[in-house]
Amino acid sequence: MRRTIIPYNPKLKEYAKQRRKKMTLAEVLLWRQLKQKKMCGHDFDRQRPVDEYILDFFCKELMLASEVDGWTHGFKRHEDEERQRRLEQLG
Questions:
Q1: pTM score, whole prediction
Q2: Gap between the Cα atoms of 9 and 64, Å rounded
Q3: pLDDT score at 43
Q4: How far is CA 4 from CA 54, 60, 84, 90, in A?
């Protein structure tokens, strides 16, 4: 089975690094579970640059992105929908 190439944006690398240091409480709690591979043994990255976005959590093996949305996303519905469409196009 051929793996899908995930577009990586090196311009977002430093910003993703900063976001890893400023995770929300919800992100921290989920990361504690994910980093110990408690989700069926799958490996997740946190604050992963993909295309033009930084995903909260990403499992390359499953091609699964997980966003831990806070209150700010209540005002970003259109942007969230556009991000969802773009990520689905990428696989």
A1: 0.79
A2: 18
A3: 92
A4: 18, 9, 17, 8
